[in-house]
Amino acid sequence: MRSTFNVLFYIKRNEPKKDGRVVIMVRITINGIRSQFSSKLLVQPEQWDSKNERVKGQVAEARNLNRLLENIGSSLNVHYNKFMSIDGHVIPERLRNIFLGLEEQEQTIILYFDKYNDQYKLKVGTTSTHRTYTRYLLTRERLAEFMKQRYNLSDMPINEITVSFVDEFYLYIRNNTECNHNSSLKFLQRFRTILYFAKNNGLSFTDPFGSFRFRYDKVNRGYLDQDELDILYTKKFPSARLAQVRDIFIFSCYTGLAYIDIFELTEDKIRKAFDGHLWIMTKRQKTDVNTNVRLLDIPLAILEKYKGKQKNGKVLPVISNQKINDYLEEIADICGIGKKITFHLARHTFASTVALGNDVPMESIQSMLGHANIKTTQIYAHLIDRKLSRDMDKMAKAVNNRNPEVNAAEIKSRMLKVLVSKKKMFWP
Questions:
Q1: Residues 118 and 241 in one domain
Q2: Is residue 392 part of a domain?
């Protein structure tokens, strides 16, 4: 049964001030239990309308007092609905204390989310990327939308977030955005980071992620084979815009560099190594791991094409990642490549076609991709058909060139010689 809730305004006639005005009081009643407090608003007794619980008249002072009374009533209603939706009950004294600021400020999820994002923003450009920062901003936005839709709240105390809350937030992301299972889990992962941030700042609460398991679906992101790479590289495009995007994409296919690392690539990161060849020697923005990649002829030709045309020492004319991906769709159509091409596909192509396809060991691919863990590299380095065919050829030569009959005869001959030798030892 829903509790009865009422807010009443009345004046304290028996305690007038020197100028004759009296205090307007506020009384909260929930299920017959009362709690009252002063609104700190004053009014002349004859101006008070007891029936309507408002100040009489249309003068500015009366309208202002009535507006303040409306705000008090609205604020108390908001707090009441909040506690009822979360706890299912609330006592009048707590509503009074919250309104008067007598209760300690609650530690809410949005409050900590904003604190975390403010701190994260300071690290952008040094130990963090702007792209990751925007993802935390988006997660905060999605969380606020969810709480508004599900609980009609703009914020929520962290210690009131439950396992059900986490499950419902996941379903909200899946059902109300275009995110798949893995992307939805990323939102939950960032949400959990905020809870850990709050706990590390001294807040005590039961972790709603305690029994939650992040089980990601395996995704085959694909790659371009050598024929598709050659078609893309040699294609003559009608516009310089498409040719430029193609060049940057091909550069990534033959170096394995991610978008942000190519965007930040400057002349000082290209050096001649001990072997006399030019290498890209840099650190990955995402992981801060060293990555060294020798420049092959194709990426060298691309660098030469744009040499001296960029500002701030940068070597390639890289536009926004979103724009590049839009143009890559157009490029794929023009080239007749029936695959969804995104810029990140270039790293998979480098690992699978360019490196693994030419028998580069997995450990070397890991180093060139700048991965801290070889398991990450194994996701990128797909086993391509051509390499599989070459490996099978090696195995076939070893297996097919053996003659089982000849080999068996040789084994029997060796066994017979051993047996004869043993007999001579015992019976000379």
A1: no
A2: no
Same domain, 118 and 178: yes
Tell me the DSSP string of 379-400. HH----HHHHHHHHHHHHHHHH
The CA distance from 36 to 122, in Å, is 46
Q: Which segment of 98-102, 205-209, 248-252, 264-268 scores lowest on mean pLDDT?
A: 98-102
**Helices 240-253 and 226-234: crossing angle, nearest 10°?**
150
Dist CA 129 CA 317 (whole Å): 20
SS3 content of the chain, % helix, strand, coil (to 5): 55, 10, 35
Note whether 58 and 149 are same-domain residues: no
Examine the fold and report which residue of 83, 100, 117 is the final residue of a domain before the chain moves on: 100
| 3-state helix/strand/coil string of 85-100 | HHCCCCCHHHHHHHHH
**C-beta separation of 289 from 371 below 8 A:** yes
- The count of structural domains within the chain is 3
Could you list the residue range(s) of the whole structural domain that residue 321 is in?
226-383
Q: CB-based contacts of 392: which residues, under 8 Å, 6+ apart?
A: none
Residue 9 main-chain phi, psi, to 5 deg? -110, 135
- For residues 57 and 81, state if they share a domain: yes
CA distance 140 to 134: 10
Give pLDDT tens digits for 152-209: 778 888 888 889 999 999 999 999 998 889 899 999 999 999 999 999 988 888 899 9
Q: Among the three residues 383, 404, 420, which one is the final residue of a domain in this structure?
A: 383
Per-residue pLDDT at 27 exceeds 90: yes
What pLDDT shows up at residue 348?
Answer: 86
DSSP, res 310:
S
For the stretch 293-342, pLDDT in tens is: 889 999 999 999 999 888 888 999 999 988 999 999 999 999 999 988 99
- Check residue 304 and give its pLDDT: 94
**Residue 74, CA atoms < 13 Å, CB-side half-sphere:** 6
Q: How many Å apart are CA 196 and CA 40, to the nearest integer? A: 41
**Element holding 23 (H helix, E strand):** strand 22-30
